[in-house]
Protein 1
Amino acid sequence: MEFRLTEEQRMIKDTARDLVAREIEPVLAAHDRDRPLPQAAMLKLYAALEPLGLMAPRLPEEVGGSALPYLSYGLIMEQLPAALGISILSHESTTTRIYLGADEEQKRRFLPALVKGKTIACSGISEPNVGSDPRAIETRARREGDQVVIDGTKLWITNGTVADLMVAVAAMAGAGLDRAEAKKSTITRIVVERAHSPYQAHEVAAIGMRQGHLSEIVFEGCRVPARNVLGEPGDAHQALTLTWLANRPLVGLMAVGLAQRALDACLAYVGMRKQFGRHIGSFQLVQQMLSEMLARIEASRLLCLRALALMDEGARSNKEAATAKWFATENCLHALHLAMQVHGASGLTDEVGLERLFRDARMLTIPDGTTQIQHLIVGQELTGFRSFRS
Ligand SMILES: Cc1cc2nc3c(=O)[nH]c(=O)nc-3n(C[C@H](O)[C@H](O)[C@H](O)COP(=O)(O)OP(=O)(O)OC[C@H]3O[C@@H](n4cnc5c(N)ncnc54)[C@H](O)[C@@H]3O)c2cc1C
């Protein structure tokens, strides 16, 4: 068992941290912290991150991917501001979903711009009536000659308003809305290029990650060339599950990054702030809060990195990924709550920045499977009893 990062891994982490300070933070600071960034700013950030291999970390080099080990990807993800981290995750997992099942012509058509971060991608799975149970998708697609016509609404789509293309997950015609029929699976991935197949996209305001883009997408008779359909009709779930697996510890590491920044801020604060004539850092109850934060953060980090390391070894690590996701997002959120407590009233204001970290972290217990869904995945693996469809 080895608990130290290698020299190369340390270098990757340091490089990412420096790059964020040098090239990412100034762009974020130049824009309203509570408004979605314009697409041009997003593309600038993507260009800055492209040399780290983040546009297509899961793809092989022959198609322009960086084939980054998952562990290295996780080390970088921890350093990224959350709104950007979730955007990159959405972009690159969409790119991976295209790669998995695309024929050679589709790969040639879609991948080159995506792997360079010249265009932005998103995945449309969730809908107003569809969240934790993606098999119940209501968006419909039907063949009309050499086109596919899509009708339906997608909700909570990261990158939705700034994306050039979406992998829309829809039930191909023939599927009924009832579950028995849907079970035969007609759930299919379709690449929708916004310039050629326009759709409506609106921002949805949420508690955190406000420089990012959480969107509602409406397809009304949206016409897409039939050659944009990926893989076999009905095979979407497999590609989604494969990408969700690694996404879980990666989202966990976003939470770790937020909580670590909060702990660093606390350590500086308790050495300055005085009450009762003493630094608050000398009070045992304050030290207890710091100690608890540290334990929650470090345990979270280790679980996430372990899940990713197992994936690098080729293990499926479903249980480990699910554990890492719920534990890290919930515990880092609690660590942020403690960080605000350490700062007293000033921790609640927007001057210190903790409330923003807290609001960002609050977003992370939901995507890529809620905390409850992660528990069900773990429970199923532990007991062998299936408590929900997976
Ligand atoms: C920041 C963020 C980014 C996102 N990005 C995307 C994206 O890019 N693309 C996309 O398609 N979607 C995206 N989503 C949507 C996300 O995938 C869904 O929000 C998530 O799957 C949960 O669905 P829901 O919100 O509809 O909640 P629901 O599924 O309605 O769940 C509501 C509550 O019920 C619980 N619950 C549901 N089923 C069970 C069960 N069987 N047993 C016990 N409890 C259960 C849940 O845990 C939750 O507490 C994003 C969401 C967020 C917050």
Note: The radius of gyration is 21 Å.
Protein 2
Amino acid sequence: MKREIIIKLDNVWKTYRMGKNNYVHALKGMSLEVRKGEFIAIMGPSGSGKSSAVNMIGCLDIPTKGNIFLEKHNISHLHESDLAQIRGRKIGFIFQQFNLINTLTALENVKLPMIFQGLELEKREARARELLSNVGLGERINHRPSELSGGQQQRVAIARALANDPEVILADEPTGNLDSKTGSIMMEYLKKLHKEGKTIIMVTHDEKIAKTAERTEYLKDGTIVKSL
Ligand SMILES: Nc1ncnc2c1ncn2[C@@H]1O[C@H](COP(=O)(O)OP(=O)(O)O)[C@@H](O)[C@H]1O
Ligand SMILES: [Mg+2]
């Protein structure tokens, strides 16, 4: 039996305004359905709208036109405070640039998303320690990002993404700043999360990495042109 649809983009357009009379059409009618527990890859040339799509699925932004549903809930017209609520509970983000806070330790970085969910201090601490130990960083919890390798920083980012036990993991070129060996360790973690039942959407430039996913959607010029 097919599982339920967890993410749906229905004819989504995203236009950015640049200066006074200049507009960039990043998405031009993108439609996509993702089922619960699926692992999909999004590929496409630079500038084709991959990050725009992923950011809107992750409630970081809203479309100019069209609708996006997350668990049947239309998130296309929500205000920032509602988006932030949903994002915090349902989405785990992993970015190419890791996006860790440099002044905080690994442990503090992982604890941060839990603060906004109102989890008690002791539980936050215990969960953050456990998550870091699950990615093999139990000995590095008090290191700051600058004291960690790229691969270690990305593992902190994975632990942080999992802090609130999100249903959906969005990874925007998660191996883009890693060498191939460190990149494959990263992919092992994503595979494991997929096995555990998470829904994963991963943007990548690398055909080989995309093969880890069950399905690849090709974006070109703001629309899906192929699905394999
Ligand atoms: N915040 C923004 N403001 C203006 N233009 C943007 C913004 N974000 C993306 N763009 C433009 O939208 C297009 C798609 O960008 P993006 O979604 O980042 O593509 P990709 O991730 O596939 O490289 C590009 O032309 C990019 O320059
Ligand atoms: Mg991008």
Note: Residues 5-227 form a domain with the Rossmann fold fold (CATH 3.40.50.300).
